[in-house]
Amino acid sequence: MKCVVTGSNVKVLGRAIHSLSRIGDELYFEPLEEGLALKTVNSSRSAYASFVFAPLFFQHYEVVNITGPFVNRQSSGEEDEQLFRCKIVMKSALTVFKSLASLEKTVEKCKILFSPDHSRLVFQLHCRYGITKTHNLSFQECESLQAVFAKDVCPNVLKVQAKVLVDTVVHFPVTLEEITMAVCSSKIQIRNFIEEETDPLKVMLTELSLSPDEFEFFQVLEEADITFCLKELRGLLSFAESSNLLVNIHFDSAGKPVIFNLEDTVLEVNFVLATLADVSERSQATQKERDAQSQKQSRHASKAAHYTGDDDFMSDDIDSFMIAMETTTLEEDARGVNDVASNLPVPSVAPPRSPTFPMQSGRRSGANRHTEERFTLPPEEEAEEEEEEE
């Protein structure tokens, strides 16, 4: 593959790469017979963009069938067509076309070459005063990247100057992610998208209306409210405004993709953006998720209740066991006190037990020792007393 871009077309190529950088992190190179295709897709696969530069865009355009490890083979009848397709990191491509303002002033020619010996994609910038900047970028072999869409079957078609849309989206903050376009036969309303759970009184709503007179072509066969990302649209509008091209918008109902198209004799641009589904469909999906979550929680709750019942039975058994142990201890203490009192020669009246302040075993043993010292006589005195009585 060998491509040579000269003059102001170098800046156009740089703008295209900057526009693609707003969508994806990888840049796909696909040299085709109808021109060089530059494509990308975002990480969530909800936005796709492609630039196809016709051979007339280049001073020299040559696509050679290459043999080697970095070749995609496609069988077409008896012959095998060998096509070179690769992808590079988007940041690497941006380093080649870093400053768009200086490209047109300093760069006279740009060559894009494929080096099979070093497995590199080479960008050569031939600047003024004989300065040549060479960028050898590593690449990865890949398959063809293509989004499935049919813009010709869409019932709603709008054609408008890029400056009209640029002046419209400039009123929205840069941090805004999604906008809603409500289309009817009499007007078009563009407003910032607000989530259903968000309180409308706590957010700022920006809404602009465009009349059909502001469009070059206005065809609305079905009314629709579509919501799509604003960041990708800004990348397209920046390129369309600088190229002074009409923006063609093809769309259907909510949930189906919207296609932004730019057409020229040497260039074709397609941006395919996903749209949010209808509110009723989203509510049904949300209700299904909630039902599944509630069923899951109910199953966990039933299991927890089953385990809690087992724990209650275990706690009841432990309580009854502790009560039996306390009752046995009290009975043994009371039996011990009665045995000591029966051995005393002089009976004594024991104080009644207090249900609030139970008597401790240590105090009872001390009282018994005191009683024994007071009423029990030594054996010699007991013998003398018996002799005197006789």
Task: Report on this structure.
This protein is an alpha+beta fold. The chain has 8 helices and 21 strands. It has a 10-stranded antiparallel beta sheet. Strands 5-1-9-10-11 form a 5-stranded antiparallel beta sheet. A hairpin with a 6-residue loop joins strand 19 and strand 20 (258-263). Helix 1 packs antiparallel against helix 3 and helix 6 (279-343) packs parallel to helix 7 (361-375). The longest helix has 65 residues, at 279-343. The protein is extended. The termini are far apart. The model is unreliable at 67-80, 281-285, 307-318, 354-358 and 361-375 (pLDDT under 50).
Quick summary:
The chain is an alpha+beta fold and 390 residues long.
The count of β-strands is: 21
Oligomer: single chain
Beta-strand level of the residues, as a percent range?
25-35%
Helix residue percentage: 25-40%
Which of globular, elongated, flat, extended, rod-shaped describes the shape? extended
How many individual helices? 8
Distance between the termini: 145 Å
Biggest sheet features: 10 strands, antiparallel
Q: What's the mean pLDDT score?
A: 77
What is the chain-wise order of helices and strands?
EHEEEEEEEHHEEEEEHEEEEEHEEEHHH
